[in-house]
Amino acid sequence: MPGTLDPIDRHILRVLQRDGRISNVDLAREVGLSPSPCLRRVRLLEEAGIIDRYVAVLDPAKVGAGLTVFARVWFKTQDAEVTLRFGEAVRRFPEVMECYLTTGECDAVLRIVTTDLHSYWRFQADHLTRIPSVLSVKTDVPMETLKRSYELPLR
Amino acid sequence: MPGTLDPIDRHILRVLQRDGRISNVDLAREVGLSPSPCLRRVRLLEEAGIIDRYVAVLDPAKVGAGLTVFARVWFKTQDAEVTLRFGEAVRRFPEVMECYLTTGECDAVLRIVTTDLHSYWRFQADHLTRIPSVLSVKTDVPMETLKRSYELPLR
DNA sequence: CAAAAGTTTGGCATATTCTGCCATTCAGAG
DNA sequence: CTCTGAATGGCAGAATATGCCAAACTTTTG
């Protein structure tokens, strides 16, 4: 029903991806509309689920979540039962920010956030490797962040 | 300066990580304060950089960014010059959402967002592998998303 | 080409929220 | 117990959001 996004919609989305708390008045000025139709478009984008939600982005280092690591996981078996239980387990761990099942070299990729290497090691030893489905884990530890973006590219 | 976060600050951060556009009146009610001191705390958290920014989270599938892939990159050499140029290059690509230098098996890990496998393949062939520093790339393609969170764990 | 239907826009009135100020309350030190 | 500093709650004015309606625009239809 909301066929495609016109240039104004994309402009709105671009702005809101950079500043999710901009006032509707300023947003309207920025995209070249008056406040009324601008707010209406935002509401439609929300109702269509194109805008999923608004969130505050915290500085990881300042809230004790300074270390991001990527873990690649191999399962003992690949049946539905195993992956289902694995999914339930990782959803319970707040340290696991993202988790994907892959078809490549390994079975799952996780992005995990902790305070430091020691607390990551504890998480891996005490929780991650104790999930019954898990055969082994390989960890890539970033030394430096070259880029971290929250803006999806809009064609 | 802002020694530590007290329980009310953490409560505020937890709520704002779930709903970055909640009105200050509702936020105050939720954390058990009146609007005035609540707004004051939020402003202090912003000024301290603990709240970095507010963003709208879009549904990737609905804006033509439905495929997330992880790419592991090996460099030809590991000197500072090479990594610097690599960083500049990836920052220019909007498809690259995150990029970290690693000390493990590979030299860099990237999270890349595109429309579909075909457009990813084109991105890798036309852009990623053409960065002079890049020796080789291995890609893990997720089949399914088990978890995607935007809330950092707050101890 | 013209007329009609539907959609989008802009402006206005009202309700809600934000913002800054001040007196009061609370916690801790002397 | 008293003093001091910080945090809180309430209030008034300013800014913003919200809903409604007429006008302008776009698209379809005759």
Report on the architecture of this protein.
The structure is a homodimer of 155-residue chains. By secondary structure, chain A is of the alpha+beta class. Helices cover 36% and strands 29% of the residues of chain A. Chain A has 2 domains: 7-47, Arc Repressor Mutant, subunit A (Orthogonal Bundle); 60-140, Alpha-Beta Plaits (2-Layer Sandwich). In chain A, helix 2 (24-31) packs across helix 3 (35-47). The radius of gyration of chain A is 20 Å and the shape is elongated. The mean pLDDT of chain A is 94. Chains A and B meet through helix 1, strand 1, strand 2, helix 4 and strand 3 of A and helix 1, strand 1, strand 2, helix 4 and strand 3 of B. The structure holds a DNA duplex (30 and 30 nucleotides).
Proportion of residues in β-strands of chain A: 25-35%
| Class by SSE composition of chain A | alpha+beta
Q: How many angstroms does the end-to-end distance of chain A come to?
A: 20 Å
- CATH architecture classification of the largest domain in chain A: 2-Layer Sandwich
Please report the two chains with the greatest interface, counting residues with C-beta closer than 8 angstroms to the partner's C-beta: A-B, 69 and 69 residues
Work out the count of structural domains of chain A. 2
What is the assigned CATH homologous superfamily of the largest domain in chain A? Lrp/AsnC effector binding domain/regulation of amino acid metabolism (RAM) domain
Helix content of chain A: 25-40%
* Element string of chain A (H = helix, E = strand): HHHEEHEEHEE
Which residues of chain A form runs of ≥5 with pLDDT under 50? none
Residue-averaged pLDDT of chain A: 94
Coarse morphology of chain A: elongated
Give the helix tally of chain A.
Answer: 5
